[in-house]
Write a structure and sequence with these properties.
Length: 185
């Protein structure tokens, strides 16, 4: 992660201390595969998808451990690349299941800002801070017209209120949830 990203997470944590740090499965897959020989990449990609697409966090952790065990001996850099972000990679399991497809990747966010990045690079040095902010605002405002509604948007008030989710399901009774997690493990 670059210095800008580290600064962003630090600032975000100061403003919103309950923010959950998360990593993009698509980008992490690419990062891990880049540390493997081409011959190993198709099999490794399927193994990584088993992690992201597991129905429960326990199943994801099992697939995670299997990947590490399979690749750590010969391809320690790939295994370490995956291992170092395991908490952030699996954070989406603590949110409503309807949100998972949005939380597994940052591509929608990146595509939104691609237009902004393209325009600001092209006009570099031509704008004051004030006009640059106005341009960024107008570009972002324009792109939002093509956004589709977040799946499970009705769950957002629960997230804001701090309602907890396990494996995508709202925890109504914490003692029952603890028993279910113990049984799943």
């Amino acid at each position: 992660m670059g210095d800008g990203a580290l600064g962003f997470w630090k600032a975000l944590g100061e403003v919103w201390p309950k923010t959950v740090k998360r990593r993009c499965g698509v980008h992490k897959t690419a990062n891990v595969l880049n540390k493997l020989p081409n011959s190993q990449q198709p099999k490794a990609k399927r193994a990584l998808q088993e992690i992201w697409m597991a129905q429960t966090k326990a199943q994801a952790m099992t697939a995670f451990a299997a990947f590490i065990e399979s690749y750590a001996v010969k391809y320690d850099k790939a295994a370490e690349c995956l291992r170092k972000d395991h908490e952030a990679l699996l954070a989406f399991y603590d949110f409503p299941a309807e949100h998972w497809k949005h939380l597994r990747t940052t591509n929608p966010i990146e595509s939104t800002f691609a237009t902004v990045r393209h325009r600001t690079i092209r006009s570099k040095g031509c704008l004051s801070n004030r006009t640059a902010l106005a341009m960024v605002f107008k570009l972002a405002d324009g792109t939002q017209k093509t956004w589709r509604r977040l799946d499970g948007h009705n769950q957002l008030p629960k997230i804001i209120q701090g309602v907890e989710f396990t494996d995508g399901i709202e925890i109504v009774d914490k003692s029952v949830a603890a028993q279910a997690q113990t049984a799943a493990a």
